[in-house]
Design goal:
The protein is mainly alpha-helical. It contains four helices and no strands.
Length: 86
């Protein structure tokens, strides 16, 4: 094993050379990083444009009411639905 801690601590010049090579060369990792950065930026724009605030003041509801509406199980009526299973 020739890898030591001194080998991991790269001097500034080689770090700059690696970064310059990463920017210039057509690498798959660079392309993935660029696509992910663009996707993250677009998702943040959509979030702030459409989901940050309600459109009107009367559109906001208390969290308890929303939780009740989402978590409640609707009551099934025996008079509705197909009767062939009875």
């Amino acid at each position: 094993m020739t890898t030591t801690l001194r080998d991991r601590n790269t001097p500034r010049g080689s770090l700059r050379a690696w970064l310059a090579g990463w920017v210039r060369g057509p690498t798959f990792g660079r392309d993935i990083a660029i696509v992910l950065a663009i996707k993250f930026a677009l998702l943040m724009v959509l979030k702030y444009a459409f989901f940050n605030h309600p459109q009107a003041d009367n559109m906001s509801m208390p969290p308890a009411v929303v939780a009740q509406a989402l978590l409640s199980v609707p009551v099934s009526h025996s008079s509705q639905g197909d009767q062939h299973a009875r």
